[in-house]
Amino acid sequence: MIVSIVTINYNNAAGLEKTINSVISNDLYDIEYIVIDGNSTDGSFDVIKKYESKINFWISECDSGIYNAMNKGIRQATGQYILFVNSGDVIKEDCDLQSIISQITEEDIVYFDMEIADSLSKTSYIKQYPSNPDFKYFAEDTLPHTASFIKKELLVKYGYYSEEKKITSDWAFFMDAICLLRCTYRHIDDYFSTFYIDGISSNASNKELLIDERNEHIARSYPLYNALYRDWIEKRQELYKLKTSISVRYLKKLGFLKWFKL
Question: Which residues belong to any copy of the Glycosyltransferase 2-like domain (predicted)?
Fold first, then answer.
């Protein structure tokens, strides 16, 4: 079984080199490596040329955004499964990719846990994902594309990633694949990759855009759940405001609220 690893990059030469090194440090037997660059001007092209002999396919040309680049990678992939390890993210040093891949059977999506790291604070933690994600889970979270092996056939059937969305198309894909298409999936309680939270979808300034795109997608694709979803979001926001209010924090400090789940 061939697995295609796809890395997309735009003006992140240092991150790109780190990602490429983490991939090619493994025995690449039965692994196809694809790099899609958005016509970077920061030296990324030189990085690609430096490791060209280890890359099965690469291209450097203008694109219309993250998901346009990811879709280019999907179209070029010849593997049965695709794993996205985008520029700046890495496969951990002591990882045996062949051993990881050997755990894949016939499910449409096989996903692992993932290390999430903060470059600024130099801290990290292992995020564990649920074995049975449902609509409620996807209403506030997603699965990790940096730790998910996805059948190319499923991505093609879905129609590739929506290029209309700026930062939530991977979330929409996972949600729709599991909740609408009823694809098969399996969670493996182990991790092999690190995702750095300095990416575009993790940027605090994009939080409003992320919420807007999610709301629009749920309203369009899940109309029966939309009202319940919005009501649930509003209650979550009210609870958050209550939990962070000065008076509640003061009462908690005094121990008056220890019997309440706030």
Answer: 4-124
β-pairing verdict for 148-151 and 57-60? unpaired
Q: Where does the pLDDT of residue 207 fall: very low under 50, low under 70, confident under 90, or very high at 90 and above?
A: confident
The pLDDT of residue 198 is 74
Q: Tell me the pLDDT tens digit for each residue of 133-180.
A: 999 899 889 999 999 999 999 999 999 999 999 999 999 999 999 999
What is the DSSP pairing of strand 31-37 with strand 3-9?
parallel
The CATH number covering residue 119 comes to 3.90.550.10
How far is Cα of residue 19 from the mean position of the Cα atoms in its chain?
Answer: 15
Q: DSSP state, 53?
A: G
Question: From CA 11, how far away is CA 254, in angstroms rounded?
Answer: 51
**Residue 254 domain flag:** no
Contacting residues for 198 by C-beta, under 8 A, at least 6 apart: 88, 118, 119, 120
Residues spanned by the domain of 139: 3-221
Residue 7 falls inside a structural domain:
yes
CB atoms within 10 A of CB 195: 22
User: Tell me, what's the pLDDT at 121?
Assistant: 86
| Residues 131 and 137: beta-carbon distance below 8 Å | no
| Dihedral pair phi/psi, residue 29, rounded to 5° | -65, 130
